[in-house]
Amino acid sequence: MEGRKFLSFISILLATFLFFFFIFSRNSNLLPSSTNHHFVNKVAELELQPPRKITPHVHVSDMVHHPLDPLTIPELNRVRSTVTSHALFNAANSHALHSVALEEPPKERVMRWKEGDPLPPRKASVIARVDGVTHVMIVELDSGRVEKVDVGQVSGYPTMTIEDMNTATLTPLKSKEFNQTIVDRGVDLKDLACLPISTGWYGKKEEKKRLVKVQCYSMEKTANFYMRPIEGLTVVVDMDTNQVVEISDNGRDLPIPKAANTDYRFSAQKNQHHKIKPINPISMEQPKGPSFTVEKGHMVKWANWEFHLKADPRAGVIISRVMFQDPDTGELRNVMYKGMASELFVPYMDPSDAWYFKTYMDIGEYGFGSQAMSLDPLNDCPRNAYYIDGVFPAADGRPYVQTNMICVFESYGGDIGWRHSECPITNLKVREARPKVTLVVRIAVSVANYDYIVDWEFQADGLINIKVGLSGILMVKATPYLNTNQVSSEEELYGTLMSENVVGVIHDHYITFYLDMDVDGSDNSFVKLNLQRQQTSPDESPRTSYLKATRTVAKTEKDAQIKLKLYDPSEFHVINPNKKTRIGNPVGYKVVPAGTAASLLDLNDPAQKRGAFTNNQIWVTPYNRSEEWAGGLFVCQSHGEDNLATWSERDRAIENKDIVVWYTLGFHHIPCQEDFPVMPTVSSSFSLKPVNFFERNPILGIPPNFEKDLPVCQSTSSTS
Amino acid sequence: MEGRKFLSFISILLATFLFFFFIFSRNSNLLPSSTNHHFVNKVAELELQPPRKITPHVHVSDMVHHPLDPLTIPELNRVRSTVTSHALFNAANSHALHSVALEEPPKERVMRWKEGDPLPPRKASVIARVDGVTHVMIVELDSGRVEKVDVGQVSGYPTMTIEDMNTATLTPLKSKEFNQTIVDRGVDLKDLACLPISTGWYGKKEEKKRLVKVQCYSMEKTANFYMRPIEGLTVVVDMDTNQVVEISDNGRDLPIPKAANTDYRFSAQKNQHHKIKPINPISMEQPKGPSFTVEKGHMVKWANWEFHLKADPRAGVIISRVMFQDPDTGELRNVMYKGMASELFVPYMDPSDAWYFKTYMDIGEYGFGSQAMSLDPLNDCPRNAYYIDGVFPAADGRPYVQTNMICVFESYGGDIGWRHSECPITNLKVREARPKVTLVVRIAVSVANYDYIVDWEFQADGLINIKVGLSGILMVKATPYLNTNQVSSEEELYGTLMSENVVGVIHDHYITFYLDMDVDGSDNSFVKLNLQRQQTSPDESPRTSYLKATRTVAKTEKDAQIKLKLYDPSEFHVINPNKKTRIGNPVGYKVVPAGTAASLLDLNDPAQKRGAFTNNQIWVTPYNRSEEWAGGLFVCQSHGEDNLATWSERDRAIENKDIVVWYTLGFHHIPCQEDFPVMPTVSSSFSLKPVNFFERNPILGIPPNFEKDLPVCQSTSSTS
Questions:
Q1: For a tag site, which of A22, A613, A661, B467 has the least CB within 10 Å?
Q2: pLDDT tens sequence across A24-76
Q3: Is B450 a catalytic residue?
């Protein structure tokens, strides 16, 4: 080895060591103090792939630069010391912080703010449980003042803490009956894996106790314990007292499905002899580096876009102050004040004892951000991705870092931004095409078995595409059957036999997005552009019909409760009635649905009452600070009396007002064998698209690719 | 310059010279002998970007390797000499070949064929007009035998030839009245650009003459003449006699919209001062080269897929014999015998004189392949794309080469094939993700103003996604208005004011795909898996409802006339009732719709009668060689009495039969200013997805990306 090469080898080694040392020391300091439970003895066998070549961010010295920046480590520590020294907490036997997040300054204050201006006073919104009572407080960070917020008499409990969930999974072990049934089923306690399953609300049983239902699995011989349910065993646990409330044990005769072929990890495939033809490496390369910047941790600038981006324990990511620089005028124009995933409703379609309650609200019950795991560089995100961490509070208020939780990258998969060739008819030699490059903001949320990939994709032409991918592992049910020929035609499986003894239960996913559109300012209107058949009058035309577009401005909320109809189609515009284009069209953005599904559950089903925000695909509400979470602020065991559907029933005025659009993207999922043991990603999306927002095609001036600008590459191995 | 570098510089120079020499000499030899009309004098001003670094294919020595290979140049020449020496042609005053394509051997013969077997006898199917009469003939290439085919008494004329279209645009100039009105409107004849517009069929007027309607534009000061319509002027031309039949001239008072800001070419943007922030080059790089092969010109092999691919003058591309090698067993399994775009229906929504007939059927009237232009390397397709030419016959039967008409490339835009992380609840250190790489087959069809990008995207997990992108230039209407405030509320614009004096007329696009699915063999069934709400019985469950899937096998065609319904959802499976998975599920593929639109026109509207194949989104017919074109074989001026809708009405048996699935992807297009002067691509798609086709997730064994496998790149400029 040459001297210079040796030197660089040594420095890489040193850097790698320092990097891992830093990561692990940080993780052990900052991760929530996790109870050392029975899962831990499996960890050694499993692989942790450390992030590669990602420069870790140091957060202890994070500064606040923007009114919407999330709480920093010093700020979270200040909140913790402030509230724990507060009389309410001092006098208490127990307390836990279920949410500590920035109390965003008033919208008009944020919109007025410019770089260089002093920051508005920093406040934290805190949701705490103190001796079994929920409190909402605003903490002023400078003064230390704590103000209690009256949220009224609403049902429900705050998002579970990770500590709640961890403790709940251990609580059943306190019960002899539970331990006995596990042993009776032939499962070694050391192989036990349990999940905390939100109970929903089905009447008295769930009242006045903060409950969770624990279901368990055997992880013997597989990392994919989800495929090995201990069927019919449900333990109701009180999360405030950590006591077992009830054990329902109805599946003793059901087998635990075998471990064979369930492991999906790369290391487990080595002896599988898949006949898969290899795909050569392919990588999006940017020889001059990415074109976006992330300034001061949160301000993303790319092409003509700029927006504020932050991790949030509940929403996952929050995208704020989305603006587009008009390519004609240079003006920075408002598009959206705030966009985020607001709630996710996942009802399973099995009314039996161990399944009926599985009607998850993953965002409000589990937290989409706190379940968003570190992304795998090169596989979850492409090579040049930039990673952003989440800085979140544990239940005791101590901050921890969710590393590499968000990635931001430019994408080019070969799509075309616009094109035109002249054809032989005209014989003009014109051929113009532009590659379509986009900017993607991604999180991948693992709510136990399921994985949700949420992408906010920004196009250079002003379109925002919001895409949700479903992957991960199905929630399955054990069955005695090895083959469908054993199932009588009368018997209801509630799903598909996916493997021997394994039924994939039918379920839906509904993810509702909060979209506070501010098209060139806050006062907007929602317009339906309905296409309807017009019959021509006799002798008017050889045609007897054509489609005519009719504009209707929604006056109140009920005008904007939209169910999509293929045979009664509309476009849905958010326009600024106070601003017109040069030729007189109101400037606007439209919501463009794509493939979706609608909830078909009985409106009076307790599950659908709580998930009533899925009763329409689109809703529009007037902006209201307290209406951000479609399923309500407190979702665990909520009765459904305070959610988007009930707000909208007030039928408030929404014309020429600051309005919020809610869009629900739905999926029906009838499982199939391809979903076993881990499912290929299924995606759907919707878009926010400029419609007479620009005077003309805003990407007219984008140059085509030229060979001279593209990289020269070789394979890494050939350079070694 | 060093000696070696100089040498390579010289050889590159030489290669470049030879390449261009080859291209241009080829083009001038092989392009249809285009009439030297008035467009030509504009050519010098416009830019032709020659393909870069693409090795041209030599076709004069093309060999036939597969029963489905398209006709080669020698074969086309043989067809030409055979038919022109036939008595029918000998005795005729005029003749033109409207279609010369491979008469594919019987399906069972093709399916039996294996590499190395002798090829079935080669035949050509010829559609010719001889002295004003349409003939369909089968020409046996070896024997020279010509067999006339009786296609019955159906209305309509064959696809226009490019010569038809070129001649038609010149014919109006024969008319003094026409020339006068052009001059009266202030247009110099040298700036005239005219388009041949299919007439549709609206009764007697169109009967017994092969007509086209010519509309004209001013190309003064712009390459984008489409934005400068000479409104209200329609010239009916007889394409058999090349005579003007009628001139309708109703727009004398309407202005011709200005040329300013209409040019979309890169060269025209230089003085536009777009405030567009530059995007650094980004390129999909494959240091070890692409992973696909195209063997013997047509057999594509990638990942576990293989299929036959060819250019077709009418369909654009035809994908045949689509098979997937099962990763568990290694078996090569049938998925689809043949897939192609079958018809495209584009009704405009303006019943007035110069617009009502604009109800294009682009595939049957113009030819999707003959209008598919050379793709622009680096911009229409990414860097490592492989290009395939079309070898097509001109009207006189001479073959010409449509260079670089199809591209094939691997795509990776950062998507995730599957993933799972364990979350804090389980505390297992598992994080597995796989990048999603796909193979794309693309054409871009320019039917005059509009551009259709048709992608067949193959995923490694067995899914085929068929995506249609719309770009290009809108068909617009001149209007007196400069601003919407001049338009009275009673007046119907039939569209959107997009620029001064320019209305973008509302229109739909319906593209119907022919999908001859052969899931593990030809005998398949079509199954609806309908999801319906079940109410639980009292005391059955705390839930009052759940969704239950009910399977219904379609017995006859009418059972499979499907209108999609958001609130009555189904999955649509093509299963093989004779083959089950290990655990007893029938193997299948499902048709997965995404965003789409349905035709709302009056079923008795002459336009909708011809486009009746759009009356449902899905149809299933029994395989029938003569039922390939959804709008019928002869589409120009067809009455609509012989198309998919009428075939399906026969209600033939389709259970456990060789069946064909037809899917129609629809778009409503209400124009907006962003579509001016060229529209950003709007896409939608549908998928064919394995459903219990595999025993389990077929991409389990795909390895993740590792840094060591990715390329090392630098920017080209930094290497110079």
A1: A22
A2: 333 333 333 333 333 322 322 333 333 335 567 789 889 999 999 999 999 99
A3: yes
Does B530 lie at the interface with A, CB-CB under 8 angstroms? Answer: no
Q: Is B494 left (phi over 0), alpha (psi -120 to 50) or beta?
A: left
Token readout for A594 is 């794509």
Strand pairing report for B507-517 and B332-347: antiparallel
Those residues with Cβ within 8 angstroms of residue B3's Cβ, 6 or more apart along the chain or in another chain: none
Residue B123 lies in a domain: yes
**Which residues are CB-neighbours of A125 under 8 A, at least 6 positions away?**
A99, A100, A101, A102, A103, A136, A137, A138, A139, A149
Strands B507-517 and B657-669: antiparallel
> Is B384 contained in some domain?
no
- For residue B650, the distance in angstroms to the closest alpha carbon of chain A comes to 26
More confident residue, A218 or B24: A218
Residue B430 touches partner A, C-beta closer than 8 Å: yes
Environment class of B434 (CB within 10 Å of its CB; exposed 0-12, middle 13-18, buried 19+): buried
Any CB–CB contact under 8 A between A12 and chain B?
no
Residue B699 token pair: 């991409």
Beta-carbon count within 10 A of A649 CB: 12
Say whether both A26 and A77 belong to one domain.
no
Q: Which of A37, A375, A604 sits opposite B544 (nearest CB)?
A: A604
Please report whether residue B701 resides in a domain: no
Which of A164, A249, A263, A362 is catalytic? The answer is A362
Q: How far is A139 from chain B (nearest CA, A)?
A: 28
Query: How confident is residue A21, by pLDDT bands cut at 50, 70 and 90?
Result: very low
Closest CA of chain B from A71, distance in Å: 22
Task: Tell me the CB-side half-sphere exposure of residue A472, using CA atoms within 13 A.
Answer: 23
Number of domains in chain B: 1
Domain for residue B83, yes or no?
yes
Q: CB contact, 8 Å: A207 with chain B?
A: no
* Facing residue for B425 by CB, picked from A169, A375, A692: A169
Q: Please give, rounded to a whole number of angstroms, the shortest distance from the CA of B267 to a CA of chain A.
A: 10
Model ipTM? Answer: 0.92
Q: What is the mean pLDDT of residues A1-27?
A: 44
Residues A655 and A665 sit within 8 Å (Cβ to Cβ)? no
Contact B382 A412 (CB under 8 A): yes
- In the numeric block, which tokens belong to residue A570? 């509309």
Q: Please tell me which residue in B337, B348, B366, B450 is annotated as part of the active site.
A: B450
> Alpha-carbon distance A646 to A642, whole Å?
6
If pLDDT is split at 50, 70 and 90, which confidence band does B51 have? very low
β-strands B95-102, B123-130 pairing? antiparallel
Q: Which of A130, A149, A168 is the last residue of a domain?
A: A149
Q: A504 and chain B: CB distance < 8 Å anywhere?
A: no
Residue B566 burial class via C-beta count within 10 angstroms: exposed 0-12, middle 13-18, buried 19 and up? middle
Contact call for residues A534 and A550 (beta carbons, < 8 A): no
Residue of B362, B461, B508, B520 marked active site: B362
Tokens of B28: 């001038």
Give the distance from CA B521 to its chain's centroid: 27
- Two tokens, residue A343: 């709630």
> pLDDT, tens digit, for every residue of A147-157?
999 888 889 99
Residues A22 and A77 in one domain: no
CA atoms within 13 A on the CB side of A284: 29
Q: How many Cβ atoms sit within 10 Å of the Cβ of residue B706?
A: 13
For position A716, what pLDDT does the model report? Answer: 67
* Residue among B417, B422, B473 minimizing CB distance to A420: B473
- The CATH number of the domain holding residue B67 is 3.10.450.40
Q: Does B484 touch chain A (CB under 8 A)?
A: yes
Domain hosting residue A16, numbered range: 1-30
- Local structure of residue B710 (DSSP, 8 states): S
Q: Tell whether A145 and A77 lie within a shared domain.
A: yes
